[in-house]
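Let us work through a complete example step by step.
Step 1: write down the sequence.
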Amino acid sequence: MKTQRQKKIIELIENNDIETQEELAQALQDAGYNVTQATVSRDIRELKLTKTSTDGKHQKYVVFSPAEFKLSDKYVNVLKEGFLSMDTAKNLLVIRTVSGMAMAVCAAIDALEFEEEIGSIAGDDTIMLAAKDDDDAVSLMDKINKVIKK
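Step 2: predict the structure and record it as tokens.
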């Protein structure tokens, strides 16, 4: 049942612009799956779904696949679409994104493989990037700014 439901989720998000868990839960119920919000949330995590901008104002769920981000242009586009602001706090970078875009922006930054980055965590609209030290955090911030301004 779980495997079939998750296949249906992928089919639904590939064929529809689904922005919220509530919309996804309703689409699943319309397709004959009896699901709760918790089940949908768990499936989103397990399938590694993320959101991407459709027009600069709306987002939709997509399946994150590292193979889809082969070209650095895609990373840059995701970064530019979702980025709002950035600041340092010692060896940490705190990056603010468009609501719902933090996971996609974080995945794009991770995929760019900056040597100064040692780890990252993304929420809904905030990313925490850890650098090796304070100087690397500043360097990382400079590199991200250069990418955004391309």
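Step 3: interpret the result. The longest helix spans residues 134-148.
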